[in-house]
Design a protein that fits this description.
With 216 residues, the chain is an alpha/beta fold. It has helices at residues 30-36, 56-63, 105-119; strands at residues 14-15, 18-19, 46-49, 67-70, 93-96, 125-131, 150-156, 178-184, 192-196, 209-210. The strands form 2 sheets. It has an 8-stranded mixed beta sheet, sandwiched between helices. Strands 1-2 form a two-stranded antiparallel sheet. Strand 1 and strand 2 form a beta hairpin. The longest helix is centred in the middle third of the chain and has 15 residues, at 105-119. The chain binds S-adenosylmethionine (SAM). S-adenosylmethionine binds at residues 23-28, 50-53, 56-57, 72-74, 78-80, 96-97, 99. Residues 23-28, 50-53, 56-57, 72-74, 78-80, 96-97, 99 line the site of S-adenosylmethionine.
């Protein structure tokens, strides 16, 4: 896949200290996808990475043993297009880092599309890497407090560096926090919150569970 150029003169040209990329092509570092792996239920075998970019997230999932279908609008597959709907029936779940769009409109549309597929009983899992505050707003509560499928939030306590600076003397200082949001078709009870970091272990307290043992 070709390298996507930087948009110019856009109002939100800068996002969290990085230049905004055309179609939101921010490739997810491997360690971020690896944090999700223990949270994927054992009965999930086939995954649709529906905004796969150059395939970084898909390759981590494949290396973990999943059958992965990767599509992207850059390949002519618009996830929000009706014609793509048939793909849901061929997979167990959807995992991606979606484009956010202005005021998160695209990310909301991506999650809504998956929730509709869950209601049709076509997929059992949706996992999306999103800004940590994505669940805060009143207008998104149909995806969280009012959504029976919302199962877990995996708070990532290390900030993601999306691009390495060309300047070796400049230390990257990303400003945004991210989390994995997980919805399951057969989830029962309240959603849970977990905290995770690629290098640290946290003691489990109260209802907070640790990520690395894969148990909930
Ligand atoms: C944030 S990047 C994520 C890339 C990849 N998932 C990863 O984590 O490395 C978002 C991707 O969404 C794609 N995209 C944007 N709008 C889309 C749409 N409507 N349908 C499918 N892909 C879309 C972009 O081309 C871009 O590759």
């Amino acid at each position: 896949m070709s390298v996507v150029s930087v948009e110019s003169k856009s109002r939100d040209r800068w996002i969290s200290g990085y230049r905004r990329q055309k179609r939101d092509l921010y490739e997810t570092p491997s360690w971020v996808t690896e944090l999700l792996l223990p949270q994927i239920p054992r009965d999930i075998r086939t995954i649709w990475e529906c905004a796969c970019g150059s395939g970084q997230m898909a390759s981590v999932l494949r290396a973990a043993g999943f059958d992965v279908v990767g599509t992207d609008i850059a390949m002519g597959h618009d996830f929000l297009d009706e014609t793509q709907r048939c793909r849901f029936r061929a997979v167990d779940g959807v995992v991606t880092n979606p484009p956010y769009g202005r005021r998160h409109t695209l990310a909301v549309a991506f999650v809504e599309n998956c929730m509709a597929a869950m209601r049709r009983d076509e997929i059992r899992l949706t996992a999306m890497l999103l800004p940590a505050e994505f669940d805060y707003s009143h207008t998104k509560q149909h995806l969280f407090s009012e959504c029976p499928f919302f199962a877990r939030k995996l708070v990532i306590t290390r900030r993601i560096v999306w691009f390495q600076s060309d300047d070796p003397d400049k230390r990257e200082a990303p400003k945004n926090n991210h989390a994995w949001f997980i919805w399951e078709r057969h989830h029962e009870g309240r959603p849970q919150i977990f905290y995770c970091h690629p290098r640290r272990e946290y003691a489990a307290t109260n209802d907070v569970r640790i990520w690395w043992d894969g148990k909930v």
